[in-house]
């Protein structure tokens, strides 16, 4: 890594750390294999872009964007907004499930209270 800029080295070290966290989480069973593939692939692609920054410029030109940095930023924003959307959908689903469970528990407790008061 003699020809790499300090920022490339720091980013690559961070990516190694992030990838290790993904591996650890899948081994612990905290994330599914699909999530593991998504995140590990993302970190591998980012590592490739850090080691070979010219590849982003090549890809940017292929899709009509002037600079590789711009392409990375655009792609990152799209990915972040999509992940934010997915997170919000999951939160909304959890809210509905909690409301449903709370209602079911309240009904069950009320029925149990009525049964015990009848005896």
Structure, described:
The chain has 119 residues and is mainly alpha-helical. The chain has four helices and no strands. It has helices at 6-28, 33-51, 54-62, 68-118. It is elongated. It starts with 5 loop residues before the first helix and ends with a helix.
Give a short synopsis of this structure:
The protein is mostly helical and 119 residues long.
Shape: elongated
Assess the beta-strand content as a share of residues: under 5%
**What structural class do you assign from the helix and strand content?**
mainly alpha
Q: Determine the N-to-C terminus distance.
A: 80 Å
Quick tags:
single chain; mainly alpha; 4 helices; 86% helix
SSE inventory with pairings:
Elements: H1 6-28, H2 33-51, H3 54-62, H4 68-118
């Amino acid at each position: 890594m003699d020809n790499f800029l300090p920022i490339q080295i720091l980013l690559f070290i961070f990516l190694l750390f992030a990838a290790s966290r993904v591996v650890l989480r899948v081994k612990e069973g905290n994330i599914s294999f699909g999530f593991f593939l998504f995140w590990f692939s993302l970190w591998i692609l980012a590592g490739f872009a850090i080691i070979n920054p010219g590849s982003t410029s090549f890809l940017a030109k292929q899709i009509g964007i002037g600079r590789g940095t711009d392409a990375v930023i655009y792609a990152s924003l799209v990915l972040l907004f999509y992940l934010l959307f997915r997170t919000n959908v999951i939160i909304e689903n959890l809210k509905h499930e909690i409301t449903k469970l709370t209602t079911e528990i309240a009904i069950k407790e009320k029925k149990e209270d009525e049964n015990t008061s009848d005896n």
